[in-house]
Amino acid sequence: MNSEAAAALRSVVAPIFRTAGDWRELQKKLAAKGFGLTFRKGHMVLTDIATGVAICTGKFLGTPLKEMSARLGRPQIVALPGGLSGDFLH
C-alpha cells in the first residue's frame, strides 16, 4: 500500500478505533464502512468485509492489539482450524 492510500485509510478508520466503546461497537462501525476485523498469527487485522482479504494490521493503523485490549478489554476469539487465526466470538 502506498503512503497516500495508507493515509486515506487511516483517516477513515482511525476515528472508529479511537472512539469505539467495546469490541462489538468497533466491529459494527468498521462493517458500516466496508471493513472487517479478524486475528491472524497473533495480529489484529483489518479486512475487506466483502472478500475477507487482509488490508493491514492494527499496528500499521497506529492501534495495535495490545493498546486496544488495554482500552476495550481482552477480545473473545474463537480459533480457526490450524490455530493461527481466529474470529470474534459473537
From TrEMBL:
This is Uncharacterized protein.
